[in-house]
Amino acid sequence: MGIQIPEDAVLVYGSTGFTGRLIIAEAVRRQLPVILGGRGESVRHQARDLGLPFRVFAVESPEARVALRGCRALLNCAGPFSHTAAPLVDVCLDAGVHYLDINGEVEVFEALAAGDPVARDAGVMVLPGVGFDVVPTDCLAAHLLRRCPAATRLTLAFRIEGLVSRGTLLSMLENVGRAGLERRNGILEAVEPGGREMVVDFGEGPVQALQVAWGDLSTAYRSTAIRDIQVYAAPSPGWRWILRLTAHLGRPLAKRWAQNLLRPLVALAPEGPSAEARSRGGSAVWGRVETDSGQVATARLTGPQPHDLTAQAAVAAAARVLAGDGAPGFQTPSMAFGPDFVLGLRGVTRIDL
After folding, report:
1. 349: which residues sit within 8 A by CB, 6+ positions away?
2. Which CATH class is domain 135-305?
3. pLDDT of 269-294, one tens digit each?
């Protein structure tokens, strides 16, 4: 007897990746109807081991449209999202299926936001960034605006702890050499990568943070309409060294020969932090808004290790979509589900300062 295909399921594309497996485990725990998806035979093995339905297809193949039959939503976990987001969104628009992803790339957010009118006309929600990029920062930004509706400047910072997944490293490698970004008067402006620093207190004393091009430069801008936005990351000492090195060597590392040399080396990196390492880790986000008259509102948020937070947030967002929450068109997490969506995740707390 074959595996029963659930009705109105979420197809998780990239289910065999490190973060994809965490998301599937969380979906099974929550009894969310899911279908495994990906382009390789590893999906078949995963489906056999878990007893779940599956579909194998490439993002730009004719089979993609057929693979979405019976699905209410697609959750894209297959990066780099600069390669996978646009073709999968096109398929979802054609099939009338809602699109979600765990992307954190500013350029991808910008491209998907530009397609808002088409998604609205199709009755399809396009909801990228339902992981650590950008659920906690986006929800914190919307919460700060709620406290200070006249805000004209937004500063966000987050803390990096421990290992990142191999997939994240590959995305970082692809983006190396690109200029940093900030939002000035509503426009994305280039800045020197890692060139600016600020001191942030995440609750355990002040630490140095480097300016980064984070997804909120696109998403928080649309969630809050605040026109001046900067984002900073407070890395561990090891990651600080890597960020500074890539900032100084960005141009040569971006060349094709360097990328071809480095990709096999990245492939040798650990797939991601172990369950034990993740249980010891955590995450922290800090935010501040300011008005032209000098009014300030500040808050911080703490939560589980970013991979675990991503799994929780992605499944929670998918469950809300299946329940009919949100609206057609381009959405951010806080636009779709409100500023307090992040507080529904296990281990997340928020403090107003």
Report:
1. 301, 302, 303, 343
2. alpha beta
3. 566 677 787 778 899 999 999 999 99
